[in-house]
Amino acid sequence: MQQRKIQQEEQFEDVVVTRTDDRTIRFCELTLVSTNDLRSVEAEWRRLESLAKNSLHQGFDWCRAWTEAHHSELAIIQGVAGDRTLFILPLEIVSERRARIARLLGNRFNNLNTGLFDADLAAPDAEELQNFSYALRLALSDTADLVVLDNIPLIWRGIQHPLSGLASIENQNHSFQLPLFQNFEATLAQLNAKSRRKKFRSQSRKIEAIGGYDHIAPADPAEKHALLDIFFRQKGERLRLFGLPDVFQLPGIQDFFHRLMDVPAKGTDTPLTLHAIRLRGEHDGHIAAIAGLSRKGDHVICQFSSIDETICPEASPGELLFWLMIEQSCREGASVFDFGVGDQPYKRNWCTQETVQHDMLIPLTWKGSLMRPLLIGVTRAKAAIKRNPHLYAMAQRWRSGRCPKAPEAPASDAE
User: Are 303 and 272 in contact (CB under 8 A)?
Assistant: First the structure.
């Protein structure tokens, strides 16, 4: 693992950000304001989300869909100077271990978090970070015991995160990216291009032998929602096969993704588009693989994927679908195809870049101060297990409740 880590300053070209003011604004100039009304800050929210450095998972439509699906108790923190909002942290309050946790909306379904920060906001020094933490306590002490900002890269696309000095612990999961070029051949050249082309031809021939396939990305609302329901069934059956919990059955999750499907695209930007391999011939209409993609600017993220191996599993339809989606992303001008969090073999086979993410835990009350080391300890334990193949296999068997000789679930289904 250590050999695969890459300094993130070298991962991506620096992003050129247009200034909106003739001077930078320091954290000490900000006043923290909390609201539970998304609509009241929508205009400033959408302005900040348009900046390339800010994650699509903190976008307004993503957070609104999550809130409406979960009826969340909100605490939207804004850093305000004069009539300008310089940052937004969209948080929800959840109960955990008899404490109140303020988390970023989306929780475990976010692959990369940044919050929303203005380009004119200067990086805070140590004293300003200490004052920021104190201001959070004043703003939220009646609402939450602990703030948890997780899955945050300290450096993303060449820009250091403003709150990087508050990092508490490295997250147990890293995320994986493939840089894209307009020329798909140039993209493949980063990998073992000859081997990949050979595998693609072999996969295509195997499916053609049973009638062929179509790569679909439906635009019709009814077709989109029907395909999403197929994904939920397909993924659920796969997870049940290995005795693993189905996270998509948690309250509000399916409603959340259905709401995202209804958000209209803005050019190439979309919170969720479904892609699938649909068979032709004697198995006409059978869906062999599905993936959900989000896009903001030049950044594409794979949110989820599933496969159905009941027909022609030797063709590896999931791998075939990734080839087709990456090829299309190149044609459409994307520069990053992000496979999201989780260390899985197929991600390492595709990706040349690995992004380390961190969690920031900020106690607000005595309960939060007690809970912080507990959560840090849990994260350390998870990281230790995932770094040890033997321990990870044991953990998977424990989760599935199977005997030691039971088949081990592929990592792509176990995350």
Answer: yes
Tell me the CATH class for 9-170+357-400.
alpha beta
Regions of the chain where pLDDT drops below 70: 1-23, 388-415
The answer to whether 139 and 126 have CB atoms below 8 angstroms apart is no
DSSP state of 166: G
Q: pTM of the predicted model, to two decimals?
A: 0.88
Q: For position 30, what pLDDT does the model report?
A: 94
d(CA 163, CA 165): 5
pLDDT of residue 390: 67
**Rg value, the chain, Cα:** 22
**What is the token pair recorded at 110?**
């976010």
In this structure, the chain runs to a length of 415
pLDDT at 260: 97
- One-character DSSP codes across 97-118: TTEEEEEETTGGG-S----EE-
3-state secondary structure 258-298: HHHHCCCCECCEEEEEEEEEEECHHHCCCEEEEEEEEEECC
The rounded distance, in Å, linking the Cα atoms of 324 and 333 is: 15
Rounded Cα distance, 74 and 133, in Å: 19
Q: What is the pLDDT of residues 166-193, one digit of tens each?
A: 999 999 999 999 999 989 999 999 998 8
Q: What stretch(es) of the chain map to CATH 3.40.630.30?
A: 9-170+357-400, 181-334
Residue 299's alpha-carbon distances to 139, 294, 383, in angstroms, are 33, 8, 27
CATH 3.40.630.30 fits 181-334, yes or no: yes
pLDDT of residue 5: 36
Task: Tell me 313's DSSP state.
Answer: G
Q: Inter-axis angle of helices 60-70 and 253-261, to 10 degrees?
A: 140
